[in-house]
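Hi everyone, sorry if this is the wrong subforum. Our group has a chain we'd like a structural model of before ordering constructs, and none of us has done structure prediction before. Sequence below.
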Amino acid sequence: MVTLSSIKCPDAYTSTMTVDQTPGVTFSAPPTASAPPPPRNTIGRGQGKAVKARQVQRVVTRIDPWSMLRVSLSFAFCLWLIIVVAGVLLWQGAVVTGSIGKVEDFLAQLLAESSFTIDGIKVFEGATIAGLVLFVGGALFAVVTSVLFNLIAGVLGGLRFTVVELETAQAVPDQSS
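Answer:
Right subforum, don't worry. Here is the predicted structure as tokens:
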């Protein structure tokens, strides 16, 4: 669970701005106390409607390690599954094209052996075990990282970012005529 809290700042950091609801529009930093209110965004005027929305700064002060573990395990499992399926497909493609046989012949000549074979099942088992070790290690690394983030955020104040609340947005009348 990510904990968000509002920053208690002067009104200069909570402002109302007019934005255009077109994809790819970026929002600027909040205005300072001496700066005029932000201008109306006119990018892509014909593509979307201009809205007046509140811009608020938020800070992430804590990341729940249990939530981080669940998300990282889900992500690592999906990544491991994709890699295993891709490896099996690539191996089957190499077997069908004869590449594995050529590699076996090359290794036999290189090692001065009469024959050399690569056991696909053993390769798959080794890759699966290595993937599972990386799977668990990556998830534990994510949990340790979230605990470190919590410790550092307690000292330095967290991660600050700006949110434009479009759910409180109101349509701005078109003044181009």
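For your construct planning: Residues 120-156 form the longest helix (37 residues). Residues 1-33, 40-46 have pLDDT under 50 and may be disordered.
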